[in-house]
Amino acid sequence: MSLESILNNSNNYQPGLSIDCVIFGFHDNSLKVLLLKPKFSEKWTLPGGFVTVDDSIDVAAVNVLKERTGLTGIFLRQFATFGDINRDEIDFNTKVLEFFKIPKENAKWYLQRFVTIGYYALVDFFETIPSANGKYEIIEWIDLNNIPELILDHNKILNKALENLRLELNSLPIGFNLLPEKFTMTELQKLYETILGRELDRRNFFRKMNSIGILKKLDEKKSNVSHKAPNFYCFDTENYQKVLKDGLNMGW
Amino acid sequence: MSLESILNNSNNYQPGLSIDCVIFGFHDNSLKVLLLKPKFSEKWTLPGGFVTVDDSIDVAAVNVLKERTGLTGIFLRQFATFGDINRDEIDFNTKVLEFFKIPKENAKWYLQRFVTIGYYALVDFFETIPSANGKYEIIEWIDLNNIPELILDHNKILNKALENLRLELNSLPIGFNLLPEKFTMTELQKLYETILGRELDRRNFFRKMNSIGILKKLDEKKSNVSHKAPNFYCFDTENYQKVLKDGLNMGW
Predict the structure, then answer these.
(1) How high is the ipTM of this complex?
(2) Do A111 and A203 belong together in one domain?
(3) A84-98, pLDDT tens digit by residue?
(4) Which residue of B has its CA nearest to A202?
(5) For tag attachment on chain A, is the N or C end more exposed, with fewer CB atoms within 10 Å?
(6) Are A53 and B113 within 8 A, CB to CB?
């Protein structure tokens, strides 16, 4: 939906409310985030959107994700809402209007304070078809260690998403959407390490992961490695869904 | 702030946005929630409020808490935002206006779709001074096992708060605001059990809790018990704050 058509139908949108999505993918043993480069700014931005008056906020988030990745039915989780008074969205949106030569008189809805709801998604890197339509010129997977300066409070939103993803690791299985169908234990460990931002002890990780009971060892080894070939694993879908529902219970 | 004065100054409030607070206290070995009985409804409600255009959402939540408990500077955490389209707030608010005989023409701001941000707080039962001013006739600590039917989606909000508090137990120390200054290990264990909703093994709990390093054993025993008197403990404030900042790291 273009900004013009939203402004022409602003009665159809919740006032002062937006959605921002932190979309994580895993590739080349590192965690990446899908970011957009707008035409109107040197800084990059998280994919986002608005909430129509007859859509639930979760549906609005699903729509943002679908627009930018082509994907549906993936792991998407609301993690926090951002509503500091110094988000500076009015200043920022004023500049956007100037860039697109849209008269301010037609954009009262856009020139108010916005509170934004953050969602994060875990998607399959290879299944994603990034799309930079509308106000954007580039969409790109950017390595977590190489995040540029983002507009508004988007760096804060991204960091908070990562913090929440780390917490989730202790209560939920993660990886189903991030890894290919077959993977080695080392690849799985690398995923956890890249999310946690620290190295894990190999033996401990193997032991804990096996005790959860969501992995199936396959009768197949990774072939393109020189020395001892590691085994492939896949997720036991049924058990994975069960643990996703019941929680890992790693704490008390 | 009364509903009338909010409606007379509705330009000062974010449109379609409210705050709801789940306030937990611990007393008589059980977890309780502070709930209000409105004049206009048979169902009870969570304490809530609105967001003025020049306050951060966190400040709005602090204000709700202060109004209902008299407390400031306590553990308060945003946990989720609720924005399903079937929250039924327009129907509900229409009935509130009818009850207070406020003409609908003066209440356009109130008769729109509201999205609500949930916060939960952990407070000291004995320091709280519950206050039921405004549209409410009763405010009461209600046992978690005895929660009545609440208005709108407030039961869902309460359950989600509890779910988040349970998750937090695995990453943060909890108890500083919920327990008296001196407490026994059994009382601390009881707090964890009542939050988790299940019994914990005594030895395991003692071992894990001691390994965190946030407790100080006092040279004092609980006196009004018949058999072997248990030791009193208090929190080591400095270490507690450190773990609160760094996290418990009980998982991977």
Answers:
(1) 0.91
(2) no
(3) 999 989 999 999 999
(4) B252
(5) N
(6) yes
